[in-house]
């Protein structure tokens, strides 16, 4: 009898339970046992095999409708110490697990690959990609599960902020979760019609100076004022915080890091810093503006999955079981069109880092170009129009040369 283990790692995402439920149902119907590992790799790394659930069909038949994870999750990283990785494999073997399904993002995918290598064929491993950041290297435009639900809820929150901004005549700086990539911020901002959206991919790979970010925000505020609108919503991907020069962002150098060495961006007060600097910058022009920061992220991670993710995750869970029972191991499970397509772990690796590649927003696409064109930003064409320059000058008190000097460069 085959025994499946299911492990959830990383942050929550809508649809986790859909994978767990579908995998359990199909595996049980194929005559296999299913062991749910509680709190990711945390206890397995200690050699503790007591934190498990005997998953059965009756327990999971409706869990796909729920947010969160019935197995909970953790960011415990078994790849930092060789002994931890060996204890994970030993613990899995104590539990009789010979087929392992991991559910998680780029770090969990890397951990799954290392477990497969360490087990040397004794345990077949398949990874199901999960993250609201949508930053795993799936082919084409295939989203990671949880992204579409998170984007839907983020879009609704941003649209509410937009109406509040119009009603109260203020600006909101909405910082949207996304550790490195701007998929969620841009996707929600575009859908909601936010005033402007700043993502890491539009900022370049070099260290980013705070003044540049503030300058772009100020430009959007001033341009809106020149159009007779004293309100707006700027959406910012939190990954901008990792690009900022540490000297410019208070506390970044000493910020707490997670088990994988990443800065805990929730500890970086990106919205607070930008609000302070934007108000200061506008004050230099004599512009008084109510600016409010708002973080958007934790409200999205355990939302009940929408219809897309309900359907998607059940396919992924069932596909993981079929793939492993067919003898395939060391793969990430994807759904391409209506087919389940396993991708070998090695094809996901970044040769430079040896870890899972990060999928960034492709700024060359027409979709991105449309999103950019629909926002309110200072653009080169603005400085070719005497009427536009004059309107901006009336708002800022600057003459034409002053307007072009202040806003004419990125």
Largest sheet: 7 strands, mixed
CATH architecture of the largest domain: 3-Layer(aba) Sandwich
User: How far is the first residue's CA from the last residue's CA?
Assistant: 63 Å
CATH class value of the largest domain: Alpha Beta
Instruction: Tell me the number of helical segments per DSSP (H or I, 4 or more residues long).
Output: 14
Q: What would your notes on this structure say?
A:
By secondary structure, the chain is of the alpha/beta class. It folds into two domains: 3-145 and 305-348, 3-Layer(aba) Sandwich (Rossmann fold); 150-300, Rossmann fold (3-Layer(aba) Sandwich). 40% of the residues lie in helices and 14% in strands. It is built from 14 helices and eleven strands. The strands form two sheets. The chain has a seven-stranded mixed sheet, with helices on both faces. A four-stranded parallel sheet has the order 7-8-6-9, sandwiched between helices. Helix 1 (16-29) links the parallel strand 1 (3-8) and strand 2. Helix 5 (147-168) crosses helix 6 (183-192), helix 7 (210-226) packs across helix 9 (270-284) and helix 13 (386-396) crosses helix 14. The protein is elongated, with a radius of gyration of 24 Å. It starts with a strand and ends with a helix.
């Amino acid at each position: 009898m085959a025994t499946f283990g299911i492990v959830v790692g990383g942050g929550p995402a809508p649809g986790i339970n859909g994978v767990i439920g579908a995998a359990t149902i199909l595996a049980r119907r194929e005559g296999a046992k299913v062991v749910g590992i509680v709190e990711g790799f945390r206890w397995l790394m200690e050699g503790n095999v007591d934190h498990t659930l005997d998953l059965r069909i009756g327990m999971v038949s409706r869990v796909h409708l729920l947010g969160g994870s019935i197995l909970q999750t953790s960011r415990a990283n078994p790849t930092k110490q060789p002994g931890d990785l060996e204890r994970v494999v030993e613990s899995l073997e104590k539990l009789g697990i010979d087929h392992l399904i991991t559910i998680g993002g780029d770090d969990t995918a890397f951990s799954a690959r290392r477990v497969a290598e360490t087990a040397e064929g004794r345990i077949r491993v398949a990874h199901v990609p999960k993250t609201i950041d949508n930053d795993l290297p799936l082919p084409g435009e295939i989203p990671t599960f949880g992204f579409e639900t998170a984007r839907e809820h983020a879009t609704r929150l941003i649209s509410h902020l937009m109406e509040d901004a119009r009603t109260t005549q203020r600006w909101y700086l909405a910082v949207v979760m996304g550790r490195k990539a701007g998929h969620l911020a841009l996707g929600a901002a575009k859908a909601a019609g936010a005033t402007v959206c700043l993502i890491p991919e539009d900022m370049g790979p070099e260290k980013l100076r705070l003044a540049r970010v503030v300058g772009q925000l100020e430009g959007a505020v001033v341009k809106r004022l020149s159009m007779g609108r004293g309100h707006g919503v700027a959406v910012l991907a939190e990954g901008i915080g990792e690009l900022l020069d540490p000297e410019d962002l208070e506390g970044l150098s000493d910020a707490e890091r997670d088990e994988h060495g990443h800065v805990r961006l929730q500890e970086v007060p990106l919205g607070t810093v930008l609000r302070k600097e934007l108000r200061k910058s506008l004050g230099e022009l004599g512009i008084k503006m109510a600016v409010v920061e708002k973080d958007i992220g934790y409200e999205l991670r355990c939302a009940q999955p929408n219809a897309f993710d309900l359907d998607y995750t059940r396919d992924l869970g069932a596909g993981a079981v079929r793939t492993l029972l067919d003898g395939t191991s060391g793969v990430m499970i994807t759904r391409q069109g209506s087919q389940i397509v396993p991708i070998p772990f090695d094809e996901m690796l970044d040769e430079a880092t040896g870890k899972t590649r990060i999928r960034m927003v492709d700024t060359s696409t027409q979709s991105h170009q449309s999103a950019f064109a629909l926002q309110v930003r200072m653009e080169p064409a603005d400085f070719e129009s005497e009427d536009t320059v004059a309107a901006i000058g009336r708002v800022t008190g600057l003459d034409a040369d002053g307007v072009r000097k202040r806003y004419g460069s990125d």
